[in-house]
UniProtKB/TrEMBL annotation:
Residues 35-107 form the Catechol dioxygenase N-terminal domain. Its cofactor is Fe(3+). InterPro entries: Catechol_dOase_N, Intradiol_dOase_C, Intradiol_dOase_core, Intradiol_RC_Dioxygenase. The keyword Protein transport does not apply. Keywords: Dioxygenase, Iron, Metal-binding, Oxidoreductase. This is Intradiol ring-cleavage dioxygenases domain-containing protein. Transmembrane segments: none annotated. Residues 115-295 form the Intradiol ring-cleavage dioxygenases domain.
């Protein structure tokens, strides 16, 4: 008896396969997909993958090496090491997708990469929390506001913050990690203010002991990220903002291996004066990072997303409708 799975729908017949028509055949078979967005994604993925193979005259040896590379990425990954995220970051894909899915005009704070070091176990705590127990660190007081495009304070925003220590290590890079360090989840006050005690960020190498590190070495690229502090903002009715701030003057400011630095996110550090010291109980002279984050509402973000999606699909010459900010080609 045959072990073939039953097929309950009509299958479009493939043509005799050649290098010229295989793309058409793959997309013909995939066209049976009932989800129009998934069908569109797979069609364009196949077109571009096949075009890459044709343009480069990809050899079997190179193709096999690519597969081995992806297998190795999966093998080294675990709950605390996201090697696939690292690959996406170092190819600029993470930054590109974030900019597409969360478009921003000059009126709003720009986003950047999430990175492979975010976790979901940060302590939920109060403003003023001390992120690090690092005795060697240069202390940094972070004092920020969250506002909307009209300058109104946005209160009760969940502010997820994280950074490395004075040596450039994140807590999850410690094999003996027992609890979170260098991270916290805070809430903005009714005046849109949130603040915490951190350390002055320093440059550090992204994990380069795995497949992505080997790729960077082969490309003669360095692994060093400029120092930064991560932020993620979430509140119902507002588009999630994932971003980071980079103290000015870092030696790797213009060569970030994950392409995360934007001019609007580079900041000048100040020093805590007597007024701030008294109000927030922070030592005078402590390094100070101040920034006003501007959040987009879900409606504002959707308007920008639709405008960009319409522009992109028009450039392809494809007849499509925009659903939830995403282009879906219309069937003839």
């Amino acid at each position: 008896m045959s072990r073939a799975k039953p097929v309950t729908h009509e299958i479009p017949p493939m043509k005799d396969l050649t290098t010229e028509n295989i793309t058409e055949n793959v997309n013909l078979i995939n066209s049976q997909c009932a989800d129009p967005r998934l069908r569109f994604l797979m069609e364009r993925l196949v077109v571009h993958l096949h075009a890459f193979a044709r343009e480069t005259r990809l050899s079997s040896r190179e193709w096999a090496a690519g597969l081995d590379f992806l297998v190795a990425i999966g093998q080294i990954s675990n709950d605390l090491r996201g090697e696939m995220i690292l690959l996406s970051d170092t190819l600029g894909l993470s930054m590109l997708v974030d900019s597409i899915d969360h478009p921003r005009s000059a009126n709003f704070t720009e986003g950047t990469v999430l990175g492979p070091f975010h976790t979901h176990d940060a302590p939920v705590t109060e403003n003023g929390y001390v992120l690090h127990s690092d005795p060697d660190a240069t202390r940094l007081f972070v004092l920020c506001t969250v506002k909307d495009a009209k300058g109104n304070a946005v209160g009760d925003v969940q502010c997820d913050v994280w950074e490395g220590d004075s040596k450039g290590f994140y807590d999850i890079q410690n094999p003996n990690r027992a609890e979170p360090d260098g991270r916290a989840v805070l809430r903005s006050s009714k005046d849109g203010v949130f603040y915490f005690n951190a350390v002055v960020p320093v440059p550090y190498p992204i994990p380069d002991d795995g497949p992505v590190g080997k790729m960077l070495k082969a490309l003669n690229r360095h692994p060093n990220r400029p120092g930064h502090v991560h932020f993620m903002f979430q509140k119902e009715g507002y588009d999630t903002l994932i971003t980071a701030l980079y103290p000015r003057g870092d030696p790797y400011e213009t060569s970030d291996p994950v392409f995360g630095v934007k001019q609007s996110l580079i900041v000048d550090l100040e020093e805590v004066d007597e007024a701030i010291s008294k109000q927030y109980d922070v030592a005078v002279g402590t390094k100070l990072l101040r920034y006003d984050f501007i959040l987009a509402t879900e409606e504002e973000a959707m308007e920008m997303r639709i405008a960009k999606a319409t522009e992109a699909i028009d450039g392809l010459g494809v007849k499509a409708k925009i659903v939830n900010g995403l282009p879906i080609p219309e069937l003839d």
